[in-house]
Specification:
The complex is a heterodimer.
Chain A lengths: L2 H28 L6 H5 L5 H10 L6 H13 L13 H36 L4 H15 L2 H15 L15 H39 L2 H8 L4 H23 L1 H15 L4 H10 L3 H29 L7
Chain B lengths: L3 E14 L2 E14 L3 E5 L6 H8 L8 E10 L2 E2 L5 H7 L4 E4 L13 H13 L3 H14 L5 H4 L9 H13 L5 E5 L7 H18 L2 E6 L2 H7 L2 E6 L2 E7 H6 L4 H8 L4 H7 L31 H5 L5 E4 L2 E3 L4
Parallel strand pairs in B: 3-8, 3-9, 6-7, 7-8
Antiparallel strand pairs in B: 1-2, 1-4, 4-5, 9-10, 10-12, 11-12
Classes of the chains: A mainly alpha, B alpha/beta.
Chain lengths: ~325, ~325
């Protein structure tokens, strides 16, 4: 992994992000709805005021001029202004992003912690009872959409049993230990729903990657070395099986963010997913643009991470 | 043969498939003495590889299963041994190299690390010591610039070089027996000769016994003292190499020897190379008689009724044929 390669990859990311932003901007401009629609219909605001506001924000300019304005502002670090919340978009996103990253991060960690051992055990004992049970559960897991399992969990643990809070709150009144416990309690359901959904498909990937590797010749070589089955599996099977799995996890991140939008909505997690949805509902174009663009950046970033990890895990791949 | 190292008795390794039991190895007897080179020959699917892998218990179970027999290693039966006991024998006492040098090394570790892994396991060396020993082994198998190459990955070596690495790996714990499962089949002819020569050289140096599995009769003639011919999961003939090539008794062995291309004869007589007619019979519920009967031009009713026993026809020369 050379520094040159890294720099070149980062440079290549620039045109792709530009392309993404053009598409996003155009689609948003074509979409119906107007952030000032409310002003126009409000009799208390004189039409001249509404018109000057529109002119001030450049809403009536052609799309490409508006895009250039957006781009120039973006380059200067100005993300725009939220019409609905009346604060800067970057402040708004920075408020929401940590929550999302924590929930998604915890969910991904949960998914990996569950999927890796289960997938490896299932893959090394194909068609055993364990494998069949794991497979069935995994199949159920990724067949059930998060909005269904989420509501189901709320129904069971919040409504019936009243063990866990139904709504995720960013402003827990307490501090210290009580805050920590409350934070854990309110995170359990969103993290579990998202994590197990991810984990279910991951189990299948890990299992098939392991199945591919265990029958390779070098695993027999490893067995002939007399190092014990556990070392054969961890060093020789899992290590190589991880190569495709790591790429998959990284390339699946867009799906994870997509899933997070739904999950955040169900549990009222104040992350950028729910910000996106409320911004869409209130025609808050700058926020929608910014949030989708942040998603795009994250996806590009994870692609880069996937490539770097791939090269690190597989010495046969040389980056030039 | 004075000191028996490995004594396989009536080994039966069968595989459960959807169609029934495949009797890949069906009552094989094989002895290897200390420092002896024994060739095991036969065509694809005759059970040579399964026999070899059975010795180190490298058979996947299921579907594989030991139906019976014994594998005595210096008098001790390996078949009932547990995994931990077996691991003390693997690499340290019996090592194995495989047919495909391109795939038998793990692509994600350096060759040095892969050799060091065995040494650290069995000889409790530190990482540094193990890597140094790995470099020594590499230079022993004539890999140039071994000190530097120990840090290279398998994909940076050619096929022949990788087989050398495999030999270095197999010999790093000084085993008493090296099982070479078609070690030269995947290599081109000049490299084959080099690898065989290297194995011979290593044998002289370490004094280990070699079980050389191959389907190339020429390789056997060059390297082995004793030869075991297998056909459809059974030993059909066993003899000292000289006796086997000079006086082959089983029709299958005769066929194998006639199918060796001979440069000297081909040039003079423009003879057609002889092939054995037919194919290996299915090992699913094989017929009761001699398994070669269908392809044998001397076959009679006696052959089809019962499996002929292995009978002695000369000093150390056994054949499973009624003729």
């Amino acid at each position: 992994m050379s520094r040159q390669y890294l720099i070149r990859r980062l440079l290549i990311a620039i045109p792709s992000l530009l392309g993404i932003s053009i598409v996003l901007f155009t689609v948003l401009a074509l979409a119906p709805g107007d952030p000032f629609g409310e002003l126009a219909s409000n009799p208390a605001i004189p039409p001249e005021v509404a018109a000057s506001l529109r002119a001030k924000f450049g809403l009536d300019d052609p799309v490409w001029i508006r895009y250039m304005h957006w781009l120039v502002a973006m380059v200067h670090g100005d993300w725009g202004f939220s019409f609905a919340s009346r604060i800067n978009v970057d402040t708004l996103i920075l408020q929401r992003l940590p929550t999302t990253l924590i929930v998604i991060g915890a969910a991904q960690i949960l998914a990996i912690i569950v999927a890796l051992p289960v997938g490896v055990l299932a893959g090394t004992r194909p068609y055993s009872i364990f494998d069949q049970v794991a497979n069935t559960l995994a199949f159920i897991g990724f067949s059930l959409p998060t909005f269904f399992t989420g509501l189901l969990l709320i129904l069971i643990f919040s409504v019936r049993l009243d063990w866990l809070p139904m709504v995720y709150r960013a402003d827990l009144g307490s501090t210290g230990w009580t805050w920590f416990v409350a934070e854990i309690k309110q995170s359990i359901m969103p993290v579990a729903v998202l994590g197990l959904f991810q984990g279910a498909s991951l189990v299948r990937y890990v299992r098939s990657a392991v199945l591919d590797v265990v029958r390779l010749d070098y695993v027999t070589t490893a067995r002939s070395k007399g190092i014990g089955e556990r070392k054969v599996i961890t060093r020789h099977v899992v290590r190589t099986a991880l190569i495709p799995v790591v790429t998959l996890v990284a390339l699946q991140m867009p799906v994870v963010f997509g899933g997070a939008i739904v999950t955040e909505q169900i549990f009222r997690v104040p992350g950028i997913g729910s910000l996106l949805i409320s911004a869409m509902l209130s025609n808050d174009t700058p926020v929608v643009m910014a949030v989708t663009f942040v998603f795009a950046c994250l996806v590009v970033l994870f692609n880069l991470i996937a490539d770097i990890l791939y090269g690190w895990l597989d010495p046969r791949i040389a980056y030039r | 043969m004075t000191d028996t190292l490995l004594d396989i008795r009536e080994l039966k390794t069968w595989f459960a498939t959807d169609d029934g039991m495949v009797r890949a190895v069906d009552g094989v007897d094989l002895k290897i003495g200390r420092g002896e080179t024994v060739g095991v020959v036969g065509e694809s699917g005759c059970g040579k590889t399964v026999t070899a892998r059975s010795v180190l218990k490298l058979i996947d179970m299921p579907p594989g299963r030991f139906e019976g027999g014994q594998i005595l290693w210096q008098g001790r039966d390996l078949l009932p041994l547990g995994a931990a006991e077996m691991d003390k024998i693997r690499a340290r006492e019996i090592a194995i190299i495989f047919q495909e040098p391109m795939t038998s090394l793990n692509p994600v570790y350096t060759v040095g690390a892969q050799i060091a892994e065995v040494l650290r396991e069995h000889e409790k060396l530190t990482r540094r010591q193990a890597i140094d020993r790995a470099a020594e082994m590499l230079s022993l198998v004539n890999i140039p610039n071994a000190k530097a190459r120990v840090h290279d990955y398998p994909h940076q070596f050619s096929g022949g070089m990788r087989q050398r690495v495999m030999i270095a790996l197999a010999l790093s714990c000084r085993p008493k027996l090296l099982i070479a499962d078609e070690p030269t089949t995947a290599l081109d002819v000049t490299i084959q000769a080099q690898i065989l020569e290297l194995m011979q050289e290593m044998k002289e140096r370490f004094g280990m016994a070699i079980m050389l599995i191959t389907h190339a009769m020429g390789v056997v003639a060059e390297t082995c003292q004793r030869v075991v011919v297998m056909y459809a999961g059974k030993v059909v003939e066993e003899a000292p190499a000289v006796a086997l090539f000079g006086n082959p008794r089983h029709p299958y062995t005769q066929g194998l020897i006639r199918s060796i291309p001979r440069v000297d004869r081909a040039a003079e007589h423009k003879e057609r190379l002889e092939a054995i007619q037919g194919t290996v019979p299915s090992l699913l519920n094989p017929p009761p008689g001699c398994r070669f009967a269908q392809r044998c031009r001397f076959a009679s009713d006696v052959c089809r009724q019962a499996m002929p026993p292995l009978k002695q026809v000369g000093p150390g020369h056994f054949v499973r044929c009624v003729l």
